[in-house]
Amino acid sequence: MGSLPSLASPDDIVARLGRNLNQTEMARVDALLRDGSAIIRRYCREDFTWYSADTITIHADGGIIVLPWRPVASVDSVLALSGVPGIPDIPVTWYHFDDIDTITVMNPSQSGIINLPEFWYEETLWWGGSFRVVGSHGYVESPDDVVAVLCTAIISELSTPTMSATLASESIGAYSYSMRRTSGAGLSAALVDAGMKTSLSDYRKTQGTIKVRMLCRLPTARRSRSGDDPSPVRTATATIPTHLWRRISLPARYSPEGAARNSSLPTG
Asked: Where are the domains of the chain?
């Protein structure tokens, strides 16, 4: 992908400045627009560009696909990927899209298709498999608040007496004035002062999902230092997946029979 276009134009600057740009300002404005656009995109984690028929391969979690696109205009197709040679990928027509960002892939038994390969009825495939999604998303034009913040910051930079944008004060004869920016210096600080972290915070992508696996600890007896029989007081711990713990029954106190029954338990 080449460089992205600026989020505003010199005409947007002129409209807010109230006059035409002079020669010095014209020489700087394009570079400032590119730099400011890059800083805003980096902060928001959004490129503010329109994508038509974009394709993404994404993993489902519990039959739910959360698209990273914002905003989503349409979901055109969903394809379940088998990942197994000889078994074709299956177009999913029984999904539900909430018109925001979430696709729910229901059990294939609800698909209404009676001749699906048996392979696709395995719960792990539709519940947590990979899917290829095609859809359109993004922004046809830069949002008004993004343009406003960018233009305000650039006008502030163009109005700075020097190109360093670090000037705190200046005196010319009997006339003096001071300038202080609350968040440092440079275009990045100008964007912060213009409201980038407040006005544009809604565009910043900060949420996601992770899958966790809960583990439980079970007491197991161990031999004492003297080598005697295992003591019920001194215990070690074994960590097992939760999908096994409902099938396990431990004796209230240690016994050789209980030890024999539990000798096959996986230990951490």
From this structure: 10-48+141-203, 51-137, 215-262
